[in-house]
Design the sequence.
C-alpha cells in the first residue's frame, strides 16, 4: 500500500471496506443517510476544515465566488493532461465536484449523486469530479459504478489543483470536499466547501445555480 493509501486507511474508517470490495454498481447504488453540510468553509492558507471534529489545515491560494478558473493541469484516465479551465465542456456551464478520495462512502455517494440526481442537467452542462486518486483508480471506479456522464480528473501528481484553489490538505495529502459551479465564461458562480469532511455538499443547490445560469443565457 502506498503512503497516501495508508494515510487514507487511517483517516477514513470506511476506506478499508471499500478498498477491498470496490464500489456498488450504478443503478444498484444504495444511498445512505449522510448529513448535508450547512454553510461553507473558506479556501486557502489560514483556513481549515474538520474531520469528525478535528481540524485539518487548508493550503494554497484560496478560490472564491467571482474568481476565474485557474489554469492547472489534471490527469485524465488515459494519463494525458488537460487544463481544468479548458476541458471538453469549456464554453458552457460546468459543475466541478471535488472529493478527497473515491474510496470512501461519502465521496462515493457525492459522485453518484452528481451523476444520477442531476435531473437531466448532464445533457446541458459538463459534470466533473476531481480527486487525488490515480487515474487508474478513477477509471476503475467509473466502470464499476457504471458512471459514464461524469468527467474524472486526477490531481494525483503533485496536488497542483488543490494548491492552486486552496483546497489541498497537506496532511493527509487529499483534497477538501467541495462543489463549484462555473459559468460559460469560466467564472466561479457558486462554491461550497464543506466545513466537515464527513458531510456532503448541497448538490441540489449547485444544480439549481447551474439551471439558473443556463436559463439566463
Sequence:
Amino acid at each position: 500500500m502506498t503512503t497516501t493509501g495508508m494515510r487514507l486507511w487511517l483517516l477514513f474508517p470506511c476506506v478499508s471496506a471499500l478498498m477491498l470490495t470496490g464500489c456498488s454498481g450504478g443503478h444498484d447504488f444504495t444511498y445512505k443517510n449522510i448529513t448535508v453540510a450547512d454553510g461553507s468553509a473558506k479556501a486557502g492558507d489560514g483556513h481549515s476544515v474538520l474531520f469528525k471534529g478535528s481540524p485539518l489545515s487548508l493550503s494554497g491560494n484560496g478560490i472564491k465566488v467571482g474568481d476565474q478558473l485557474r489554469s492547472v493541469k489534471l490527469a485524465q484516465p488515459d494519463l494525458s493532461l488537460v487544463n481544468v479551465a479548458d476541458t471538453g465542456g469549456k464554453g458552457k456551464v460546468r459543475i466541478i465536484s471535488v472529493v478527497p478520495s473515491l474510496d470512501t462512502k461519502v465521496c462515493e455517494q457525492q459522485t453518484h449523486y452528481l451523476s444520477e440526481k442531476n435531473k437531466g442537467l448532464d445533457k446541458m452542462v459538463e459534470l466533473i469530479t476531481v480527486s487525488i486518486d490515480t487515474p487508474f483508480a478513477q477509471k476503475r471506479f467509473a466502470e464499476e459504478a457504471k458512471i459514464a456522464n461524469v468527467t474524472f480528473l486526477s490531481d494525483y501528481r503533485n496536488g497542483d489543483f488543490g494548491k492552486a484553489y486552496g483546497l489541498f490538505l497537506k496532511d493527509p495529502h487529499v483534497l477538501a470536499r467541495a462543489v463549484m459551479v462555473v459559468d460559460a465564461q469560466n467564472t466561479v458562480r457558486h462554491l461550497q466547501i464543506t466545513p466537515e469532511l464527513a458531510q456532503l455538499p448541497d448538490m441540489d443547490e449547485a444544480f439549481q445555480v447551474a439551471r439558473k445560469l443556463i436559463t439566463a443565457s
About this structure: Residues 1-26 have pLDDT under 50 and may be disordered.
